[in-house]
């Protein structure tokens, strides 16, 4: 569990540097723009690797905290579908989902983490998804507050952008849920 927690601290910690723009700007000045991006990427990658390794190690000694009802797994599938659509909204240009939320990837992270917390009751999952949920709640609030203070609003979207976003999100979700989740994560959500 130690490696999982260390990985979360590194990965989510480096993703919190945007909450302290003055500190981040000092680091960019210190290392240069490319140097900071390289350091940021290196810390994020190290954190990600530690999360994967730590989670796999935690699977060896499972600690069950609660047993969710079976229907929570179905709810999690719906939450994850919505999260994939929100993830697509962060990248597909000209959609109204991005225009409305401002930070759809962070909103998707909240929904993804909440769905997994509700449907899986092992300690390792509570640590992993709980950490991502707390980070996403804080990040979303901070980013929205920052955008309001700066008067920033995303460009308005179109129906065409919305349709493309939903199609991309649904296709990505289906590929991941039906074919990739099992080999990559070790759990087949749909048998």
UniProtKB/TrEMBL annotation:
TM annotation in the entry: 38-55, 75-93, 113-141, 162-181
Matches recorded under Pfam families: NnrU
Top-level taxon in the UniProt lineage: Bacteria
CC per GO annotation: membrane
InterPro entries, alphabetized: NnrU_dom (IPR009915)
UniProt KW keywords: Membrane, Transmembrane, Transmembrane helix
Positions of the NnrU domain: 3-189
Membrane topology: Multi-pass membrane protein
Subcellular localization: Membrane
The protein's name in its UniProt record: NnrU family protein
């Amino acid at each position: 569990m130690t490696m999982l927690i260390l990985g979360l601290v590194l990965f989510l910690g480096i993703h919190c540097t945007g909450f302290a723009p003055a500190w981040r700007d000092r680091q960019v000045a210190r290392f240069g723009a490319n140097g900071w991006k390289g350091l940021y990427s290196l810390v994020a990658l190290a954190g990600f690797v530690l999360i994967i390794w730590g989670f796999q190690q935690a699977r060896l000694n499972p600690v069950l905290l609660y047993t969710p009802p079976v229907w929570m797994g179905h709810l999690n599938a719906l939450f994850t579908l919505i999260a994939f659509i929100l993830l697509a909204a962060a990248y597909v240009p000209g959609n109204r989902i991005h225009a409305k939320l401002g930070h759809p990837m962070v909103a998707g992270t909240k929904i993804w983490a909440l769905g997994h917390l509700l449907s899986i009751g092992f300690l390792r999952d509570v640590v992993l998804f709980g950490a991502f949920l707390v980070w996403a709640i804080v990040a979303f609030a901070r980013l929205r507050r920052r955008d309001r203070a700066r008067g920033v609003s995303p460009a308005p979207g179109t129906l065409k952008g919305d349709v493309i976003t939903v199609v991309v999100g649904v296709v990505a979700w289906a590929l991941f849920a039906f074919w990739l989740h099992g080999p990559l994560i070790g759990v087949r959500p749909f048998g």
